[in-house]
Amino acid sequence: MGRTSTARDRLLDSACELMHTRGYTAIGVAEICGRADVRKGSFYHFFESKQALTVEVIDTHWQGQRVAWRERLTGPEPAVERLQRLIAWLVATQREAWQETGRVDGCLLGNLAIELSNQEAVVQQRLTAAFDEQAELVHTALTDGAEDGSVAPGCADRATARAVVAQIEGAVLLAKLAGDVGSLDDLWPHVRRLVTADPPAHASTAR
Amino acid sequence: MGRTSTARDRLLDSACELMHTRGYTAIGVAEICGRADVRKGSFYHFFESKQALTVEVIDTHWQGQRVAWRERLTGPEPAVERLQRLIAWLVATQREAWQETGRVDGCLLGNLAIELSNQEAVVQQRLTAAFDEQAELVHTALTDGAEDGSVAPGCADRATARAVVAQIEGAVLLAKLAGDVGSLDDLWPHVRRLVTADPPAHASTAR
Fold first, then answer.
1. pLDDT tens digits for A150-184?
2. In a domain, B117, yes or no
3. Statement to judge: residues A58 and A43 lie in one domain
4. CA A62/CA A52 separation, integer angstroms
5. What is the pLDDT of residues B77-113, one digit of tens each?
6. Distance between terminal CA atoms of chain A?
7. Which of A174, B1, B33, B75 is deepest in the core (most CB within 10 A)?
């Protein structure tokens, strides 16, 4: 690996770190280059624009995350335990980052989704694809769970899978805002309710 | 009501609209003044800075929202129906905006929370206070619901109330990203699971 590929990787790492903390708009190419120790002229040798770099940041980040999601959601255990393992890992990730930086930076994909949904179509497409994959991975686990009996049959649908992803994103948003990683300890009991709870009879009229 | 107060209100309205769509960092004072038809020199007569304006935008927005939240969550109906009324109103609000603009702009408070949590302490405090109030209003309704029997007794706690707020924010984030207001039609069934579902016995080992 020569100097060239290292510089490219450094630009990706720097952009990922800076955007995770402070978002897309607040970060300029000069700052990314400064942190990566790469000359600004070289930036455009590797990336056409900040937008193009951001698409690669998202792809690289989600490629790593996807492996982790799959690992946690696969195995011989009842599906609800695999889902619990995923949540525990997500919370541990936020906690480790918090111990290192003193901040809760939240979810890079969620942060960029909020900031860029209505503004950068290419970025929006990549983020949508990543969240769709997350929901699909959870949906597969829920389907397994309906078979092994650990997930309520009425909860093994794609809408519930999206609700699980939404609960994760919402809880991380509130933890980030409060700077309180401890609030994420409640995430699993709530996700569990989403996937194990058939609606009780007395609530059916309130549908 | 002279010209002065009108200009101030216009600045607040313009900032609210622009920030709701495109965030805080992407919007400058000049653009806010342009949309409000107020000279830039006058801006600093009314507001010390963009940050000071943003604090007022948040306060004004949440004051209006707070009234709406209280109205929907108060009444003689079982608490779970009041909660359903709140969710229906929130979804209708997003749908109306979408019909008007073709966009799902999501939640102004959530958008600013994601963007500014780690950067603007004063803004963060106001947003934290607003979300705390939301959780408190839901918590009060859940407590009523445990008494009237429409909410599961184990769900009438503050952590569940925060999970309801998280579910709203996460679902709105995904709807905003996908530009799909229709996905919010699933929000109520999922919130209902969070508040009406005692954990089933077979899931207790997965706590």
1. 999 999 999 999 999 999 999 999 999 999 999 99
2. yes
3. no
4. 16
5. 999 999 999 999 999 999 999 999 999 999 999 999 9
6. 59
7. A174
Whether A33 and A115 map to the same domain: the answer is: no
Residue A202's pLDDT is what?
A: 44
Task: Report the C-alpha gap between A167 and B62 in whole angstroms.
Answer: 22
Q: A203 vs chain B: nearest CA distance in angstroms?
A: 7
> Which of A131, A150, A169, A205 would best serve as a mutation to test chain B binding (most B beta carbons within 10 A)?
A169
- Say if residue B63 is in the same domain as residue B108: yes
Same structural domain, A41 and A71:
no
Roughly what angle, to the nearest 10 degrees, separates helices B79-101 and B158-178? 20
Mean pLDDT, range A127-156, rounded to an integer = 96
Is A90's Cβ below 8 Å from some Cβ in B?
no
Q: Helix, strand, coil: what percent of chain A each, to 5?
A: 80, 0, 20
Amino acid at B67: V
Q: Are residues B24 and B60 in the same domain?
A: no
Q: Is A104 on the interface with B (CB under 8 A)?
A: yes
B4: pLDDT confidence band, cut at 50, 70 and 90?
low
What is the domain count for chain B? 2
Is B12 near chain A, with CB under 8 Å? no
Domain identity same for B31 and B58: no
Spell out a b/e string for B165-187, using b for 16 or more CB atoms within 10 Å of the CB, else e: bbbbbbbbbbbbbbeebebbebb
| pLDDT per residue as tens digits for the range A91-125 | 999 999 999 999 999 999 999 999 988 788 899 99
The chain-wide mean pLDDT, for chain A, equals 91
Whole domain around residue B139: which residue ranges?
51-199
Q: Is B206 a domain residue?
A: no
Domain co-membership, A39 together with A127: no
The band of B147, judged by pLDDT with boundaries at 50, 70 and 90, is very high
